[in-house]
């Protein structure tokens, strides 16, 4: 390959993420007014209006019937809260970014650690993977222009600034001094990027989604949805610490495909998330089935 061809190839690689981004809308600019009103009404009907007004509950909902035309609604979407184990998804991203860059290999041992961290929410596995990714590296990745999953102009977002264990925080978030934090909007962005193949690469996005499937901890969203819709496929990560309850998921069932994220700060937060998951599901319409054009068989008449 000559120098000119090599330069063109290098430029193509650099522009690939940009080209992918141009194919999809900015999620926070995809608000659907009708779904927004319905979400407010649904949450008020559950008796959660006071929690919303007191900034103790945040919810983001994204209908992915057409991933290139998402429909988004939310309350307190840019409210950053302590989110316990939910931000382990950021470590998952960091691991696959390092793999893409050639600094890590997806060995069976690392795969097991990632599954333990996400499906079983193992703190020890999370800390071991975090140290392989690099603590400062992850902080910079979350704030990078490519992902902007922590964005000061939108009140922060996904943040990991402390190992999962007794060790002290090494870098709390710049705006709120939180060690493990999130906003529902940024978690929804993470999941939307994953669903559209834009977290690292299409292959890596699919691998991350597979790791988030088959959750071993069956509470909050999973408990509510599994009881109401036993065949639902749920790809999620949750978090619990004292009165802080969080959950973020991609949900697929009966033609529905959507993202739901909720953060709460209340002793009853886990129960809130369980019941709101079922109520909010009713706001999502199944994707229309593609129409099949029947071709006439040669030598037969076509009905008019």
Describe the structure.
The chain is α+β, with helices and mostly antiparallel strands and 304 residues long. The protein contains eleven helices and ten strands. The strands form three sheets. Strands 2-1-10-9-8 form a five-stranded antiparallel beta sheet, sandwiched between helices. α4 (88-101) runs parallel beside α6, α5 crosses α6 (123-133) and α10 crosses α11. The N and C termini lie far apart (60 Å).
Keywords:
304 residues; alpha+beta; 3-stranded antiparallel β-sheet; 10 strands; globular; disordered C terminus
Topology of this protein?
Elements: H1 3-22, H2 33-45, H3 49-53, E1 57-63, E2 71-75, E3 81-82, H4 88-101, H5 108-119, H6 123-133, H7 135-142, E4 150-151, E5 156-157, E6 159-160, E7 180-182, H8 184-195, H9 202-212, H10 220-228, E8 233-241, E9 244-253, E10 256-265, H11 269-281
Antiparallel strand pairs: 1-2, 1-10, 3-7, 4-5, 6-7, 8-9, 9-10
The gyration radius over C-alpha positions equals: 21 Å
Q: What spatial form do the alpha-carbon principal axes imply?
A: globular
How do the helices and strands follow one another from N- to C-terminus?
A: HHHEEEHHHHEEEEHHHEEEH
Please give the order of strands in the largest beta sheet: 2-1-10-9-8
Structural class of the helices, strands and pairings? alpha+beta
| Annotation, overall tally of beta strands | 10
Per DSSP, what share of the residues sits in E-state strands of 2 or more residues? Answer: 15-25%
- The helix tally amounts to 11
Contiguous uncertain segments of 5+ residues: 5-19, 296-304
Report mean pLDDT, rounded to a whole number.
91
Helix content: 40-55%
Termini distance?
Answer: 60 Å
Largest sheet features: 5 strands, antiparallel
């Amino acid at each position: 390959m000559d120098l000119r061809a090599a330069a063109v190839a290098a430029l193509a690689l650099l522009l690939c993420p940009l080209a992918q981004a141009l194919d999809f809308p900015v999620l926070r600019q995809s608000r659907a007014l009708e779904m927004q009103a319905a979400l407010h009404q649904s949450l008020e009907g559950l008796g959660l209006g006071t929690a919303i007004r007191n900034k103790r509950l945040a919810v983001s909902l994204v209908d992915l019937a057409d991933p290139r035309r998402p429909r988004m609604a939310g309350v307190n979407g840019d409210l950053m809260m302590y989110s316990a184990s939910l931000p382990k998804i950021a470590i998952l991203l960091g691991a696959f970014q390092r793999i893409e860059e050639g600094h890590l290999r997806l060995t069976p041992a690392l795969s097991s650690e990632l599954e333990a961290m996400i499906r079983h929410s193992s703190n020890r596995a999370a800390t071991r993977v975090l140290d392989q990714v690099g603590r400062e590296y992850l902080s910079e990745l979350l704030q990078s222009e490519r992902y902007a999953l922590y964005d000061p102009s939108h009140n922060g977002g996904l943040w990991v600034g402390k190992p999962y264990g007794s060790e002290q925080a090494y870098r709390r978030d710049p705006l709120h001094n939180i060690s493990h934090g999130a906003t529902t909007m940024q978690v929804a962005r993470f999941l939307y990027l994953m669903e559209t193949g834009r977290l690292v690469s299409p292959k890596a996005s699919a691998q991350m989604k597979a790791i988030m499937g088959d959750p071993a901890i069956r509470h909050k969203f999973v408990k509510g949805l599994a009881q109401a819709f036993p065949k639902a496929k749920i790809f999620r990560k949750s978090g619990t610490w004292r009165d802080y309850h969080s959950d973020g998921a991609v949900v697929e069932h009966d033609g529905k495909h959507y993202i739901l994220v909720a953060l709460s700060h209340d002793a009853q937060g886990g129960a809130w998330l369980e019941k709101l998951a079922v109520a909010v599901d009713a706001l999502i319409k199944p994707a229309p089935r593609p129409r099949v054009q029947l071709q006439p068989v040669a030598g037969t008449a076509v009905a008019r």
